[in-house]
Specification:
The chain is of the alpha/beta class and 320 residues long. The protein has helices spanning 32-39, 51-60, 72-83, 89-94, 106-114, 137-140, 155-168, 196-209, 220-225, 227-238, 255-258, 263-268, 272-276, 296-313, and strands at residues 20-26, 45-49, 122-128, 147-152, 217-219. This is Branched-chain-amino-acid aminotransferase-like protein 2.
Amino acid sequence: MADSLRNEKPFSGPDEGLVFRFFLWHVPRSVSTALATCLGQLPDIEVWHEPYSMCNMNRFIEPAFLADNPKMTPVKLWFKRAFTSEITLEEKSEMGNSVDHRCFRYSWVRQQLEEPRPTKKFVFVKDVSTALYHGNFDELLPRTRFRHTFLIRHPIPTLLAWKRLMMRTVLELPLDTPQSDVDIISDVPCFTTLHFYEELYSLWNYAKRKGDEKPLVIDSDDLIRDPEVILSKYCKALDLPWDKKYLNWASAIHPRKAWRGSYQVLKGFDFRNAFESATFDVNLATKREDFEMLTPDLQKCVREALPFYEEMYKSRITLD
C-alpha cells in the first residue's frame, strides 16, 4: 500500500448522509450468504460479495506465496483452475455487476468502496474477516464511513462444515474419505483456519476503537431460530427499512445478477444451497456434535476459537 494511504483519517464522501454503508463480517459457513440474499432485497441497495476475500485468494496463486510449502502445490492448482474457468459472454451479461477476479486487489477494492453512489441508498459488503489477517485494517478498509456488523456461529458446526467443504472442493477428495485422513490446518495452509475466530474478534475490537461502542453481533443459531426477531432488531439498530416479506426471497433478483463480485466466484464456488434457497433453513440449527467426536485438528481449532466466540456471543442481539 502506498505511503500516501497510511494513517489517513475517515473522510466524508460527496454522498455522506445520503448513502448508508455497512459491512457484515463473518467466519466461513455461518449462513452469511443466505443473510446477504435476505438483506439484498432492501430498496436501492448495492451488495458486494466478499471483495476482500477475492483479493486474498488472488494471493494464493502467486508463485511466491508459500512457495516452500509442498502442501500448497495441489491447492494452487485448484485455485488456478477455478480462476481460469471459462466465463461465456452470456454469463458475463447475466452477471453484469461483476468483474474478472484479476481486478480484485486491496487498493482497488478500497477505492471502489469509497466511490460515490448517487443512485443508491445503501451499500452492503459481506466478507470474511480472515481476508484481512495479514494487513493493517486502517490501510485496507475504506476511509468513508461504514458501520461494522458481525455474524458468528459456534465453532464446532462452523469448523466441521469448513473441513468438509475443503475436502470436497480444494483437496478434491472422494466423499467417503475419512476426516481423520486430513489435517485442515496443515493440508490447506493458505487459509488461517486455526485463527478464524481470533481474526473476527480483532476486527470487532477495531470497530469499537473506531467509535462503535457496541458493534452489532448476530449469532447464526439465533438468526435461524427466529429470523424476524433478529433481523427486525438488526435493521432498527442500523436505521434500515425492515419488512417481514424479506424473509422469503424466492422472487428476489438472483444474487448472480444483482451483486457485485468476481465472475469466477459467483459462478463456480459452492453457494448452491444459499442461492437456491428461499428462506432460512431451520435444519442448520441442529444439535452440535460432541467435541470428543471431532478429529484432533478440529479439536485444536475449536479450543482456539471458543474464547473469542464466547466473548462476542455476550454482545449478540438476543431473541428476548
